[in-house]
Amino acid sequence: MASFVPTQCLLQLLFVASLFPFISAARRLAQDQQPLLLQYHNGPLLSGKISINLIWYGKFKPSQRAIVSDFITSLSSSKTTPHQPSVAAWWNTIDKYYLLIKSKKSTSLGLSLGTQILDENYSLGKSLTSRNLKQLAAKGQQSNAINVVLTSSDVAVEGFCSSRCGTHGSSPSSKTAKVNGKISKFAYIWVGNSETQCPGQCAWPFHQPIYGPQSPPLSAPNNDVGMEGIVMNLASLLAGTVTNPFGNGYYQGSAEAPLEAASACPGIYGKGAYPGYAGKLLEDPTTGASYNANGVNGRKYLLPALLDPSTSTCSTLV
């Protein structure tokens, strides 16, 4: 198989090179976005008070863990975030999906930071399968929760870098009884730290992309490219998890590879975005870092565009 890698790379490079004449057209199209509608498949959305539990697998510094935990706290902390635009304002777009569901049941959602579990000794080794991710996710609370598995930069995960930066799904609960005769499920997310493995794929625009138009990487607001990638991907997957937790919520296309609330707007972080350009962003006057959302404790983050169901277009904070 290795003998085919150079050919595959060459084909990809040739394909990318062929795109350059069309970049100006892409810029024009960015200003004339076509409506995109996510279909509702009549399944449940996550609702009520939901704890986001973090399972840290591998070596993470306390300062790295704080970047993520502050982001989670920022999702519902608009009052403690004096500067706008805020992470909470970004999340408000997700509320619109709940308003579209006409049901007598409560469809409100409240997120909060739950427990944090450290697995610094690599209990399942440094090469994980998708099944291993579910095992790790099961360590967290399995009721009214989203269990987030975060793997350190020295951990290899099945499909990581080659086809994905993270994923979300659901797994049968092992800790609760059947609900209405059915085995209950819990939602989980996995995201890997791409810093040493594939930052050009999973931490763009804070690292130069492997393929496509090449422009200087942006300066990271939390001074950690790997963790910035984790936050961007976690944000995208959180949006997909709450609006399509069990594969029958809001999405377009195949259920196996769906376009969801954030993945329907790839590579868009600010207005005017086009392939190779994240869009017009805010810049920290002191550090020069690029961002589009303010969080708690003075944090700044770069968060992906979300598909606004009220306009069927990708919505950005800036």
From TrEMBL:
Its main location: secreted. Residues 1-25 form the signal peptide. It comes from the Eukaryota. It is found in: Secreted, Extracellular space, Apoplast. InterPro entries: EXORDIUM-like (IPR006766). Keywords: Apoplast, Secreted, Signal. It holds the Pfam family Phi_1. Belongs to the EXORDIUM family. This is Protein EXORDIUM. It comes from Vitis vinifera (Grape).
